[in-house]
Amino acid sequence: MKRSLWAVPLMAAMIAGGLQAGAPLDLKILHFNDHHGFLDPSTMKLTYTGDKGKAKKVYTRLGGLPRMEAEIKKLRNDHTLVLSAGDAFSGTLYHTLFHGLANVDLMNGMKLDAFTLGNHEFDNRDEGLKAFIDKANFPVVSANTIAAKGSILDGAWKPYIIKEIGGEKIGIIGLEIGQKTKVSSRPSDNITFLDEIKTAQKYADELTKKGIDKIILLSHFGYDNDVKLAQQVSGIDVIIDGDSHTLMGDFSPVHLKAQVPDYPHPLTAKDGKPMCIAQAWAHAMVLGEVNVKFDANGTVTRCTGTPHLLIGKGFRQKIHHKKVDVNASTQALIESVIAQHPNLDLVDPDPTLQAKLDGYKKQVDAKKNNPIGKADEMLKHIRIPRHSYGGIDGANMPLGSDIAPVVAKAFYEASKRADACIQNAGGVRITIPSGPISYGTAYELLPFSNTLYEIDMKGAEIHDVLEDAISNYTDNTGGSTGSFPYAYGLRYDVDVSQPKGKRITNIEIMDRTSKKWSPLDANQTYVIVTNNYIAEGRDGYTTFKQVQQAGAHAVDTYLDYAESFVNYVKKLSAEGKGLTKLPKGEHCIKSYKE
């Protein structure tokens, strides 16, 4: 076998140090990341090419841990590692109700070889993570996350583990995204985060000195960050990545566009050695399969693989605005498309794990009716001030929705960095009646799979975003009234009779600490929290997208927006308070004219 030039002095050093060269190894790595409590499958719309080359849309169920476990069992062999790159916490009612314990119960059935900490593992504070780890039957690794001596998380994880496969030792180093965890989650002062790149190199060197020449970085640092890390470290062979929800591979047969077209992606380490990186999207919808060939010196000679999109076998389509099962010929056509593409897999859920999940699902369904707090008055929802909507008479609502600005306040409080929140009217779905508020009510109010998104913006850009939102329904044929902007921490006058650019005036912003209001400074940078749907420029919010394309700092916190509202209502309840309309001085709409 042909060796690279760097391998010869390394071999000499190993012999001089009394270490023996290893042996070639074929290793399979099955991995997932950022499943965020999505134990159940997710309903997704896929598009395939139907008869006469026309694009056809169908709905199916993707992923879920039981379906993922079935795929793991199918692919696993004697040379397999099963790894999770973090963020098991937050995102669904399973997490809200069971605080990660239902999650870890199912994960225990998957025979994981290692799990690294994600930033959301601290969402339930140190105590919540401690309960999760205490129940886990798999090792947790995080090299740059340090728990203070004597604290409840002291000794709960290790910087790395060593596994033996095929007679060869493999080091698995864990890595956490430190700054994001500090600002977007809830670690205590007992938790310290070290520099990711320096820490990765430190433990790669430590493992190398132990004679281990096959090293995996199990990282929750994000795809772009880890690509940069790879160029600055030596000794790491494979990066199994998480945090950025990056879809890798070719899913064009079902019209899913990946951010990275190749899977895994080849990289070159600082010392010139080949390495590769892989990530498996999010929400348990993709199981990554990386196949790595090492030579006797631990050099990666081949890194290939398949990202498996885990598709349920039932498909539905919309006919006359109703979802119905597809007919037999359509089912056969869809299955033929899937069969021709290695990245697409029709998978039945693993029955053992599904039975375990069903036990929790019954409790979730029962607890949907359990109260999380109460509303002291009816909080009505209309989209446009004075315009009736959803059976609610808007004639006596000159400032528009009661509940949308309250939702914005809940998001504002969930974000530690936000100076203000902007929320589209269409993202809020119902009126909240006076009386008990249940989990089910909260998820009916906010039914989408949205997360909270933070964007650094100039005051002038905030003005432009608000103008975009008004223009979308005022100026665009068929524009949506759902784009009307509500907010918390901002207040402004609206006059839709004016031309675009002059409809939003007299904008004020509230200081987060003093609660005092002052005019929005066009040149000052503020942090706006919003939902990830409009953060992508959808529903007419084009400036949100444009400022990010121009290089503005933006972070998807991955905090579930419905869960953020649940936590806000629970906090009020713990304080002996009920949900109420905002005082007029806090409502975002100061006046509205047409």
Structure overview:
There is one protein chain. The chain is α/β, with parallel strands linked by helices and 594 residues long. It folds into 2 domains: 21-85 and 105-365, Metallo-dependent phosphatases (Purple Acid Phosphatase, chain A, domain 2, 4-Layer Sandwich), CATH 3.60.21.10; 369-593, 5'-nucleotidase,  domain 2, CATH 3.90.780. Helix content is 28%, strand content 28%. It is built from 16 helices and 30 strands. The strands form 8 sheets. It has a 7-stranded mixed β-sheet. The protein has a 6-stranded mixed β-sheet with strand order 8-9-11-12-14-13, covered by helices on one side. Helix 11 packs across helix 16, helix 12 packs across helix 16 (561-574) and helix 13 packs antiparallel against helix 15 (542-549). The longest helix is centred in the middle third of the chain and has 17 residues, at 351-367. It starts with 6 loop residues before the first helix and ends with a strand.
Topology at a glance:
Blueprint: H1 7-16, E1 25-32, E2 42-49, E3 55-62, H2 65-75, E4 80-84, H3 93-98, H4 101-108, E5 114-116, H5 125-135, E6 140-141, E7 145-147, E8 160-165, E9 168-176, H6 178-184, E10 191-193, H7 196-209, E11 215-220, H8 223-230, E12 238-241, E13 265-268, E14 274-278, E15 286-294, E16 300-311, E17 316-319, E18 322-325, H9 328-339, E19 344-346, H10 351-367, E20 371-375, H11 403-414, E21 420-424, E22 435-438, H12 439-445, E23 451-458, H13 459-474, E24 485-488, E25 490-495, E26 504-510, E27 517-519, E28 525-531, H14 532-535, H15 542-549, E29 554-560, H16 561-574, E30 589-593
Helix pairs in contact: 2-10, 11-16, 12-16, 13-15
